Amino acid sequence: MVVATHGDLSRTQAATLIATGGVTVDGRREKAAYRVRAGERVSVSVPAPPGRDVVPETIPLRVVYEDEWLLVVDKPAGMVVHPAPGHWTGTLVNALMGRAAGRAPGGDEHPDDGGAGGPIASERAGIVHRLDKETSGLLLVARTDRVHRQLSDAIARRDVQRRYVVLAWGHLTEDRVTVERPIGRDPRDRKRMAIVSSGRPARTDFVRLARFDSADLLRAKLHSGRTHQIRVHLASLGHPVAGDDTYGGGGGRRLIGLPARRHFLHAAWLTLRHPVTGDMLDLRSPLPPDLRESLDTLASGGEPIRVVGGAGANGGTEGDVLTDVGFYERDA
Fold this sequence. Notes:
CATH class of the largest domain: Alpha Beta
Low-confidence stretches: 103-117, 310-317
Structural class: alpha+beta
């Protein structure tokens, strides 16, 4: 079923959406048995969970870019993006809604919210792409439905460049490795993703920045946006993300000083053309303190070995270790 496969939904969820009008083909409703033809556009609208109102909350957010059409948030590790069972409060959506609605008396903003407030496209539609709970870093948020569609299309065309810094156990066979393997739900565990022949196409480019005795520091560039993509692709190589309990990288966390449940994965660099103004946006997030401390712990027995590129060829964030290891260098 196209909706289930490409929407990361169960067959029951997909059938319910089709029956209730949540799925259209070129703007028209079709039955679940309909076979989609090449060139047809399938739209899927997932409603907010029934019986739950998303409550605006005053939660400090670091906003690295903002205008009347979109904003980019530097999400901390441990924050869930969307409200869901077990996480109805404290999510990024709660914080965004609270930020939009919460102005201090006299029209001033909450002093620590980092910007001008304002609405987002909707409770769910404002979020253009996802980050896992324990993945930190840059995340796009649209303020209008039109901008949301434009940004989603830009990601599909690969016009939005998303690069992550990741620490993987062991050593890649080469300094540059591309993994192109389909990802879908693990048939043995629906909470996990896996490399499966029926999955959606997925490609990740990895570049080794530094080599330690037990791990590689990598830059990962996404060419698609599958759930857990970087984590699954590295695990498929036998080099799981350090601290990733789900995909086999949780062992050794204490040896490198990683906090409980935290994995070493950070969305550090986002480049895109603004969908309205046409300006090129180049946005960067320094390595968070917990990951910086982990890297220092790992390097305490000796300096990491640089293996590719030159440091800081295109600048970076002042005082950011990522500049020192050449993370911000343009792709060859």
